[in-house]
Hints:
Number of helices: 4
Structural class: alpha/beta
Strand order of the largest sheet: 3-2-1-4
Order of helices and strands: EHEHEHEH
Radius of gyration: 15 Å
Helix content: 25-40%
Number of strands: 4
Largest sheet: 4 strands, parallel
Amino acid sequence: MMDERALIIAVDFDGTLCSDNYPEIGTANETLIRRLIEYRQRGSRLILWTCRRGIYLEAAVDYCSCYGLYFDAVNENLPEIVERFGGDSRKIYADIYIDDRCSKPWEALAIRHPA
Length: 115
């Protein structure tokens, strides 16, 4: 049986929501931004999950809001997740992670470390 709760989606910024141009902000990935807006309208919860901090993080959040993309949390777990696990963790809990540097476990097995 499918879980009836809303999906939690964690999404990276640099290289994912926009091209990687850190500390500047790259070109928007408008297709992904539109899709995430649709998911949020359908009840999904969005978390911005990025290494950015301070003014660079604020700039990323502002950039996304200019496209109409808003987040339920930024670099932190949702309150119901904190409650569920009895505290916050450095690892963001999500059902789906969208990141330009991700790989599936079986893909990771094929990675060859440079000599």
